[in-house]
Structures are given as C-alpha cells and as structure tokens.
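ok trying this again, last paste got cut off
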Amino acid sequence: RVQQVLRSNPALIGQVIQRQPVISPDGKLRGLRVYPGTNAQAFNRLGLRPGDLVTAINGTTLEDQTRGEEIFNSLSGAAEGRVTVIRNGSPLELHLNLAEVATEAERLNQGPGIDTGVPPGAPESAR
C-alpha cells in the first residue's frame, strides 16, 4: 500500500520530510538533517523533531552522500523503518510507521474534504 501510494504520487514523502546533508570538515557525510515539509503533522507523527540528524537507517550508517540518499529514499517503499538520530547531542533510535504517515499524507493531499453540499460528479454549473 505504501509503495502504491508513493508510486502514484512520489512528492508525498517530500511533503512530510525535507532533508539536508550535513558534511563534516573532512568532507564525509555525518547524516541528513530533517525538517517538516508542508505536512508538519505527519512529520511529527513519525516521532521526528525539526533539526534531528539522521545518522543511520535500518542499521546502515549514512557515511557516503550518494549512498545516504539511496538509503533514505529506500524508506519511501517501506511500511516501517528504524532510524538513528542525534537529538540534543544524544543518539536516539526511532521506529517509524511509514504506512500510517503515507496514508495520512495521501488523505491530506486530497484536500480537507469540505462538504459543499454538491454531490460528486455534479455539473460545474452546480459547484
């Protein structure tokens, strides 16, 4: 279900999580700093906080920028994921329920569902 939702609208993950690589002075990737996208509610629901530094995903460290992006992108096809973040200087392991977030992001992407009193499929003149 998660893969189907994200395949039909790959921009959904970007609506939930924005990421920024953090490079050490010696040029190595330290991790990916994450911030909420336009859907901050779904971001918070994952257990992430703005500015968390993701250093590992499913036990794989993010040490190479290209590989780190690939590993991060692999989350978009998973129902769950395990990430290690540095928050307030301390490591923390989070279990992410990506299926729930993808479903919520899809629902929010479809609009607020305002009841206009006009049945679906009614002619434009009735709207």
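PB: full thing came through this time. Confidence is low (pLDDT under 50) at residues 113-127.
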